[in-house]
Design brief:
It is a single chain. With 385 residues, the chain is of the alpha/beta class. 37% of the residues lie in helices and 14% in strands. The strands form two sheets. The protein has a seven-stranded mixed beta sheet. β2, α4 (103-112) and β3 (119-122) form a beta-alpha-beta unit. The mean pLDDT is 95.
């Protein structure tokens, strides 16, 4: 079965199914063993080696979705990110990092890279000239995240990939916010794609996982570090993740339709100061979004007018959940200053444009009118509080 000839829903549903050779069941069987035979076998399997049957086959689905040769599944998004960075960066190396990235990734780099004697430079902005200005003789890698968390800023993937190749360095992207349903960085020349599989891959707020996709050579190299760091995922969770990914395209497209409508509603609302969503013509990267994304995604952020307290507003919601994480089928909102980016200093958040009252909105699959009604009643209740 040639993956490139299959439709996206077919890939989600069928590619990477673990074969049920014994009973021919309609869904993948679960292989929970932590001990496999080692004599007279082609593959010596062990959970920490990322090669149990469920791990192996689900990796094929992720690779097919991201248009890569191979993939790996990890115990969390940060396990995937840290393993990749520590694979390709050694003492004395330098990495160029996009200024606007997930707070956990930034914390890893700022708080821990010094102890590894790995130097880093955050870009001034997201223009390709800023990335180029950061390149040093010992630069080994360029790290980006687009759309960015939480302000939905975009980076020109093709320009970054071209720069990386010209400088003979690796390009790595966190593709969590978009998912492979919305964009495929490999098609623009990016080398390695990362995901917090906790988010859209899982999609039901009950799985913690990470994923990496790239060439077979890159994955083989990452594997060597991965088996040493031990960030593997239990087969029960791998099985749950494969089940969830069968509906990935359907979920993301439904969420994206809602997000586009909610972004327009919020953008026109008198109680809203600003909306950050690539699908709005007012977004600074709207033209770039149309060029490199298949739609605009289901994530957005917004700021309320100064006379409306963001925390009081979140507590007044009755349908939308004020909740950590994102990308579940249910709509959630949170304050990045108190959650995803709380590890950053107030100065660092201000530098990135993350105000204390900024609200990140992960749009779910509920009825649009119900989501709008909940936002309206929460605004009115907050105003009258």
């Amino acid at each position: 079965m040639q993956h490139e000839k299959l439709g996206i829903n077919t890939i989600c549903t069928h590619v990477g199914e673990t074969p049920d050779e014994q009973f021919k069941g309609a869904v993948s069987p679960m292989f929970m063993s932590t001990s496999y035979e080692f004599m007279d076998v082609d593959v010596k399997r062990y959970p920490r080696y990322f090669n149990t049957p469920n791990q192996e086959y689900l990796s094929k689905k992720i690779a097919a979705l991201e248009h890569t040769e191979a993939a790996m599944i990890f115990g969390s998004g940060m396990a995937a990110i840290s393993t990749v960075l520590l694979t390709f960066l050694k003492a004395g190396d330098h990495v160029v990092v996009q200024n606007d990235i997930y707070g956990g990734t930034r914390n890893l780099i700022e708080k821990h890279f010094e102890s590894y004697n790995i130097s880093f430079t955050f870009t001034k902005d997201l223009k390709i000239t800023s990335f180029a200005a950061c390149i040093q003789p010992n630069t080994k890698l360029i790290y980006i995240e687009t759309p960015s968390n939480p302000l939905l800023k975009l980076v020109d993937m093709k320009a970054v990939a071209t720069l990386a190749k010209s400088e003979k360095v690796l390009s790595v992207i966190d593709n969590t916010f978009a998912s492979p349903i919305i964009q495929n960085p490999i098609d623009f020349g990016i080398d390695i794609v990362l995901h917090s599989a906790t988010k859209y891959f899982g999609g039901h707020s009950d799985i913690c996982a990470g994923a990496v996709a790239g060439t077979q050579a890159h994955i083989d190299t990452i594997w060597q570090t991965g088996i040493a760091l031990g960030g593997s995922l239990s087969d029960f969770t791998v099985w749950m993740l494969e089940r969830s990914m069968k509906t990935l395209a359907i979920r993301v497209k439904a969420q994206q339709r809602n997000a586009r409508k909610l972004a327009k509603f919020l953008d026109a609302h008198k109680a809203i100061e600003k909306v950050y969503y690539p699908g709005l013509k007012s977004h600074e990267n709207h033209a770039l979004a149309k060029k490199q994304m298949k739609g605009f995604g289901a994530m957005l952020s917004f700021e309320l007018k100064k006379d409306i307290d963001a925390e009081v507003f979140l507590k007044a919601l009755t349908l939308i959940k004020p909740s950590m994480s994102l990308a579940g089928i249910e709509s959630t909102m949170l304050l990045p200053s108190k959650t995803s980016h709380s590890l950053l200093t107030a100065e660092a958040r201000k530098e990135q444009g993350i105000k204390d009252g900024l609200i990140r909105f992960s749009v779910g699959i509920e009825s649009k009118k119900d989501l709008i009604a909940d936002i309206e009643q929460a605004i009115n209740k907050t105003k009258n509080a």
